[in-house]
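Working notes for the structural subgroup meeting. M.R. asked for a predicted model of this chain before we commit to crystallization trials. I am recording the input and output together here so anyone reviewing the notebook later can reproduce the run.

Input as submitted:
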Amino acid sequence: MPTITFDCDDIVQLAGAGKDDIIQVIEIIGGEIENVSENSMDVEFLPNRPDLYSAEGVARAVKTFLTGSGKCKYNVKKSDIILNVESTVKDIRPFIVGGVVKNVKLTESAILSLMNLQEKLHLTIGRNRKKVAIGVHDFSMVKPPFVYKGMKPESVSFVPLGKTEEMSLNEILEQHEKGIKYAGLLKGFEKYPVLMDSKNNVLSFPPIINGARTTVTENTKDIFVDVTGSDFKAINQALNIVCTALADRNGEIYSIYVFDDKKIVTPDLNPKTKKLSIEYVNSILGLNLEEKDVVSSLKKMGFHANPDNGNIDVLIPAYRTDILHLIDLVEDVAIGYGYEKCSGTLPKKPTFGGYRDVEKKTDMLRETMIGLGFNEVTTLSLSSEKNQFKKMCMDEENKTKLSNIEFPRGISTEKPSVAEFTLIKNPISEEHTILRVSLLPGLLGILNINKHRALPLKIFEIGDVIIDKKNVRRIAGMIIHSKANFTEMKSVVEAILREMKIEYEIRPKRIGCFIHGRCASVLSNKKEICYFGELHPSAITNFELGHPVTCFEMKLV
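Returned structure, recorded in token form:
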């Protein structure tokens, strides 16, 4: 979620409220205070409220919440400013809108807030500038009409923001830090989008960088805002948020004419209207709010609300881009009314959850393994036949011996029944073609990754394997060092069985991945629940390991 840094003195002045009141309201409307100092505060907001990504937006919300009424409509004055859009940008970055905000009172804090708002909108609504890119310019330094067109990379040069020498469009992409970062957005195009004025001064090279000529300073009074992108709705939302933020700095908003396939006037700050039923509000919130309560709550959240025979006509400010459905208004009613006033009720039936037996065993075994000096790891459930069988030295007849832990005899002399493993229908790689039937190959993969670490290494995993289309919970442990042996792992397995209070007997076993004569199975109630032993050197070298490995795998259920 975006974290915004505010200048405390600036936001106090804008909101007309004390710092404590501001912090309280921010938390009520969904912000999370991360840090507060004497001069600044860091606040994390949900991505659905981009109007709060600036000091102006937060101050507006705080002031409205505390006074119970706010500014829903913004006056947009007409101008004769024209922005022409040429067909040469249609296949590159097709949409552009803009507006002018005059008589803005800018301070160092105001400029910082504007730059932060610009970047946070780029990151969120703009999808890292791919969908939306915003330019802000000192209007006094340019002369309309403006033109937005595609240009050959070497045909245009200008001084980009942060530099003192002219650079061509290609040089910006290759040498400027912003050009290098966002060059991929223009990859493959023969022409690049450029915004110019009537004297061929470059305002911006979207979505990369603005021109240094139009840099906004504390002496700037009139600001021209342009927003380009691939989504017409998104660029209008971004324009509305920036223009209303500047208007809250005592600015006056002026529209411009954008001549594309047809003439449009931007920004469009007309509020949207929705009709909200009080019955619907109460049915969602489980309350019995009266008309006046709903109206008051909506006004505290910045809406204009007028009652109409059990319904409420709601005017939604143009900067509230998060209001998509009536349920969004209900949420704001709840916030304005106060979550603390909404009492909850416990379910009438005793349906409280509890731990399953397998989860209790899992927790107990985890503590046991840690107590025995093992470190827990987690591996993917996706694997491959190569890792599960071939590298484990399991031939076709023995494929299921790792998976089918349930033999009545210690050494199987007959061909085992085939347990089905689950194939992935459309695997994305050769390493992820089946669901695992054993945890051991995953643990060997972890040891391979950690070959550079000092020995001994003792790791374990508790997780599900998939046998005959069913999840089976297993625990597996593995030890690697120069003297790892059967006896060491036998003591570990017996310690686990004692903790689980399981009566057992140990019998010899033969599995392809273990050294013959150094592998055993554990039987309980005449059913095999575990096998352990020393891995065969072939299996060890198949995973590119160079020391003896001993391991076990046990079924929990």
